[in-house]
Known about the structure:
By secondary structure, the protein is an alpha+beta fold. The chain has 21 helices and 16 strands. A hairpin with a 4-residue loop joins strand 7 and strand 8. The longest helix is centred in the middle third of the chain and has 79 residues.
Amino acid sequence: MKKNFFVFSLLLLALTLRLSAQTVTLSSGKSLYDLGLNLEILEDTSRKLTLKELIQDKHPFKKSDRIVPNLGVSTSAFWVRFSVIAPHKTPQWFLENYFRHVGKIDFYLVDSEGHVLETYLAGDWRGKNHRPLDTHNYVFPLHLKTGEKATVYLRIESITVKIFPFRIWEEKAFWSDAQFSSVLIGLYFGIIFILMVYFAVLYFYNRTNGYIFFSLFLFFFLLSELIRGNGSFFIRFYGVYHPFWSLHIVETYNTLLVLAAICNLYFYSESLKTRQTNPKLHRILMLGWLPHALLLPIIWARVLPMTFSLSAFFISPIGGYLVAGVVSVIRWKEGFTSAKYYLLGSLFFFCGLLITGLSYANLFSTNNLLFQNLLNLSSISEIVCLALGFADSIRVEREATINNLIAINKELQEKNEAIKASLLEGQILERKRVERELHDGLGAVLFGVRASLFGVQHEKLTDSQLKSYQNVEGLLLRAEREVRLIAHNQFPPELEEKGLVTALVKFVEDLNGLKVTTFQLHIDDFRAELNTKTQFELFSIVRELTANILKHARASEALIRLDASDKNILLTVQDNGLGFDASRKHKGLGMKNLSHRVETELRGQVVIDSEKSGTKISITVPIT
Length: 624
């Protein structure tokens, strides 16, 4: 009884397994069918099985239990089959294998009676006509008769991983998806290419090592992506005509990845500035590509099983990117804020490599669109993060340079102001010395000469002699007053003690005491606070302009006006004298000195308006 129950259970299980490979029923209401769980797979270790033998059902197929079957790497050929039916009239259908690296893939469409309806021989090793349709993936048209069940047999040979992600598309939906995929692939390669060229050009302009390492990383990565299957450009347009590259596609791809990884780690080092700031971190980071490089000759020699080699090759750089992430965290904590972008980039690519490596190791499978393009998404995310990080580090360096220049400029300005203050102090001391010399020296001499005339007996002089005597005495008296005026106004104590306004009031009183020209001073509510230098320069300018009026203008009246706004001071000196040709006089030494003093020392402007009826000089100076 127990024996019969056991046999019955085995038969039931076999029947269940047989029936579980359900026929795919196509309908116009659905445009995409994933075939993973509908596939039956047979490993052909002899590589000699024929379609006729399989149609006769002489060899047992094994039902797939994965959405995306992955049988690893072996020297065997594999047969895959599934049944399909279109019960009603439907559009054209396509069978797609979106794992792109296939050495040979033979397609047979067989009816329910075992007759071969259609055959396509395709694959990377087939030569020119290796794709039934000129698309990124291997796509075969399914010419099904309405209501008739058919079986598709596929014979697959390859030196890479045996992954069978088959699906059936409705024609319009397929071409729509293919066009969208082409746009994405174009954008993907376009971004990489533009960044590669951009950073190469930047390197040739300023010879920064980080630029060339990033450009080389993108160059090798771009080549590896062309080989890996994104668009299948390398195989479709070159590799298929050169058997060596088709047979060594894995080794070539891995070599390019090693070169890309080395350049990338050097870029990380240059961008994170580990060589300058922390040589120990730099050495640790450089060791990140060592496992990858050591594994490369092993893969070329094909010493280890290809399944292990491919999985290990995807997982081996994980250590390097982990180190890059740790170094980024350390540099971030040290205050290098751009490191956050490098951390994010290393994490993106770390996750992409890890999940892809686990997939090739056949630890899990999925037909999710995001997962299918995970390595592309993680790599472009890393590239964008690295570019952002590099741009941010340049911004930080530029800001640091600007701040440093600002600090240097501020220091120079402070030193310049100190020099100007010292120069002003020297000028003040020198003018005080001149004042003492004029007052105590020349002033005393003039007074002595005039005093010597006191002994002259006026009554004994003739009229002409008396007139000469009076002229000499008047000249001596005038000379004494002018000497006192000049001496007093070299640097008047009123300017030092009470400011510009008081000094000008006293100065105008002294000028009017000469009784040559009548000077008027207009100062209305002047409350601007000026530094010592500005006051000194303005007073000196007034002194020089009034001296010119006294010497050359022959003016009866003159006006000195001082006004202040929120930002500027306006000094006006005007007379009713002879005037002069402003275009010519402005080129003279006196006017040049005046303009130089105003523009250089006070950063102001001079406007001269002179006619026959007088001269007006306006000086505008910013309040500092």
